[in-house]
Amino acid sequence: MSHVLIIAEHDGRQLNLSTAKCVSCAVQIPNAQVTVAVFGQDIEAVAASAALIRGVTRVLRIENPASVHLLSAVIAPQAVALARCAYTHVFGPSTTFGKDLMPRIAALLDAPQISDIMAVDSAHQFRRPIYAGNAVLTVDVSNEAIVVGTVRTASFDTAPATGSAAVERVSVDAALPLHTRFVALSGASSDRPDLQTASRVVSGGRALASAENFKLVYELADALGAAVGASRAAVDSGYAPNELQVGQTGKIIAPDLYIAVGISGAIQHMTGIKDAKTIVAINKDADAPIFESADLGLVGDLFTLIPELRAQLARS
Amino acid sequence: MKRILVGIKRVVDYNVRVRVRPDGSGVATEGAKMSINPFDEIALEEALRIKERGLVEEVVVVSIGSSDAQPQLRTALAMGADRAILVQTDAAVEPLDAARLFLALAGREQPLAILLGKQAIDDDNNQTGQMLAALWDRPQATFASKVEIDGDVARVTREVDAGLETVEVDLPAVITVDLRLNEPRYVKLPDIMKAKKKPLDTISATELGVTPRQRVRAVRFDAPAARQKGVVLKDVTELVAALKNRGLV
Ligand SMILES: Cc1cc2nc3c(=O)[nH]c(=O)nc-3n(C[C@H](O)[C@H](O)[C@H](O)COP(=O)(O)OP(=O)(O)OC[C@H]3O[C@@H](n4cnc5c(N)ncnc54)[C@H](O)[C@@H]3O)c2cc1C
Predict the structure, then answer these.
(1) DSSP annotation of A165
(2) ipTM tops 0.95
(3) B150 partner at 20 to 30 Å CA-CA among A88, A183, B157, B160?
(4) Which domains, ranges and CATH numbers included, belong to chain A?
């Protein structure tokens, strides 16, 4: 029997969908009992939504005012205190939250970590991408009593909210450091769909050439009800904010439709979208590498094609 | 002396398209161009700028691996690091052991901060910095896009999924860097000559009290599932029709 502890990701009000993806991964482990731990302050509602995820047996709600900003230095010792009692796996999402937190937990547990789990072969065998997705590595950790993992969320479905696990309020005994302090979080909150979970995404690249022109990408996205993404070049150049970057070092996504506008298709970008169902590339260079993996392509100048596409979509 | 330690990992250059060996035993890297992990280069650049602002006196670069990593350490010295340490081992070093080795060096060198890349582009693990901070019982500020040091505190802006998060950490701390922190300087020829005279010390992993162990066993390497090459359409009308066909609009 495996006992999986999943660390819930949330923003204090809402549970992030990444948690339900971790559950989908965990239930693929044979005979797994899945427990979700929710850390934070005033997290009753978050814990309640975790209890609805199908496949979850138990939800632990660990309230502490010190946990309010979910700083890894504060959460890790608490998670470790929990994990030490009888868990075989400790999982979190491979989002910036989980990437920051899980190795800190692993080190305190003296456990190895498997990053970006994309498939579960058995309780101790997993697959993960390496070299920006140029290779898939199967790893075995049979000799370990406890392993830590981050789950590549694009590889798993969102477990449905049809469960009814019990929520237990627990307290843990752990010394919490004061050496790390939250100052601020700034992000453009928008009414657009969330990049990580949207079923349609329109991304713009360096070809947009200015933040002003990048509006073309937003407008096409709005016409489709899509989220907006960007290549690293577009973010580096200041056309789009960092949280829109898609790729090896940005977000890994799996929408039904991905439209890449003026993006060349570098491996570091493509690794972020290789699970997209349909990739559309719009690029003026017929030899751009993106056409190697795009399902549908249009060769031409985006500055004429995008307005035309929007107009036709509006008509249909 | 106030100093910063910087991790330098030797990896296959990011421009090389690596391929899995047909027998699945590994990734074919023979003869491939090797470079400093791009994130580590950014970490080094940041350390050099902190030194240039007069906030530390010394930048020490550290690589863990075989003596093959010497050229990368020389490049780091040419960029401006003051001295280099090669922690020598021929074993594959997992992130937790790398963290232990940095911890041992932290004990010897008493740095103000340890700057590492947020991930290495070979294993893509994104673990070592956080593990080091845990073992060291010190703060971690990961995925940094801005670092400001003020006395014994660092204010770090982090690239997170929701946008930009700013944290304040007491020093010493571990900072792992993201791509937009800075643009590393180019190495000039005279600096390469000068770098030849800078100290490069070698110490074995065992001397630092760590015998690297393989706990995560590689079973098999596979090529990723390839996507089918699709079709190029004539015009926007055809594209809209194709999207409709697939039920996407
Ligand atoms: C360690 C590392 C990590 C990285 N991580 C990421 C990552 O996470 N995400 C990412 O995206 N990149 C990443 N990169 C960068 C990546 O290698 C590429 O440099 C980047 O993706 C290029 O962005 P781009 O396609 O927008 O720009 P370019 O490669 O410059 O491509 C622009 C494209 O636009 C086309 N074009 C130009 N004008 C027009 C026009 N008028 N109409 C139509 N098409 C036009 C051109 O033909 C070209 O194909 C990383 C690189 C490194 C080294």
Answers:
(1) P
(2) yes
(3) B160
(4) 2-169 (3.40.50.620), 200-315 (3.40.50.1220)
